Design the sequence.
């Protein structure tokens, strides 16, 4: 048996990102669940924001914002910045958070987030309850503790947060990696490993990634 409901935004899990906006002097944070990558080359993303949000005006005005990835330690901040408005309260000061200067934008970054994307809006599309902001990702700002000795990004070290149907979660166990469905198993191995001498052309190559 299955049930059919009327259309609603059920997509889950999503990243409940902390979007920082405004200026270094008057920074603000808004929690955004309606966020997505829309192009890899050039790197672009979208965020959807209701026009009544205080952050909406700030982003329209400057055309800049940063998408800060949330961690388990930021759970309370993620929720609080999603229920309080910067119109009434300085969220950075109230939560003891710190604004960090970006390299490509004048909007602030959130120092407590280990990974942030600095974005500049190139289009705003009114869609209904929300306006969609399409933005170029101009720079990525990473805490060096997320990089291993070879400089490879180890995002699993961040303890990222997910949001699904009104609840916050940490990520569970890794259960696969890109291309694992087509990688050949070596005899005696229980989990598939890449062939020696690098990966062959196929779905494991970056051009096949989303
Ligand atoms: C988990 C979560 C996700 C949210 N996602 C969005 C969103 O995608 N777009 C939006 O306009 N508001 C979203 N909100 C609500 C805003 O974050 C909230 O209204 C906030 O207080 C606005 O802050 P501001 O007035 O300082 O801009 C979300 C709230 C939570 C808790």
Sequence:
């Amino acid at each position: 048996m299955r049930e059919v409901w009327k259309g609603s935004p059920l997509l889950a899990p999503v990243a409940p990102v902390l979007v920082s906006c405004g200026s270094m002097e008057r920074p603000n944070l808004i929690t955004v669940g309606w966020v997505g990558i829309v192009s890899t080359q050039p790197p672009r993303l979208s965020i959807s924001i209701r026009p009544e949000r205080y952050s909406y005006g700030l982003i329209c005005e400057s055309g800049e914002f940063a998408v800060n990835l949330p961690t388990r330690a930021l759970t309370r901040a993620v929720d609080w910045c999603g229920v309080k408005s910067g119109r009434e309260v300085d969220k950075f000061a109230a939560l003891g958070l710190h604004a960090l200067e970006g390299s490509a934008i004048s909007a602030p970054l959130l120092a407590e987030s280990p990974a942030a994307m600095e974005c500049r809006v190139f289009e705003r599309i009114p869609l209904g309850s929300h306006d969609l902001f399409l933005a170029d990702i101009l720079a990525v700002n990473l805490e060096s503790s997320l990089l291993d000795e070879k400089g490879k990004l180890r995002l699993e070290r961040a303890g990222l947060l997910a949001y699904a149907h009104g609840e916050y979660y940490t990520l569970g166990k890794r259960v696969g990696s890109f291309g694992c469905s087509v990688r050949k198993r070596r005899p005696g191995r229980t989990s598939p490993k890449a062939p020696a001498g690098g990966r062959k052309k196929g779905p494991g190559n970056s051009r096949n990634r989303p």
The domain at 17-170 is CATH 2.30.110.10 (Pnp Oxidase; Chain A). Residues 16, 28, 30-34, 48-50, 53-55, 79, 82-87, 130, 163 surround flavin mononucleotide (CB under 6 Å). Residues 197-204 have pLDDT under 50 and may be disordered. The chain is about 10% helix and 30% strand.
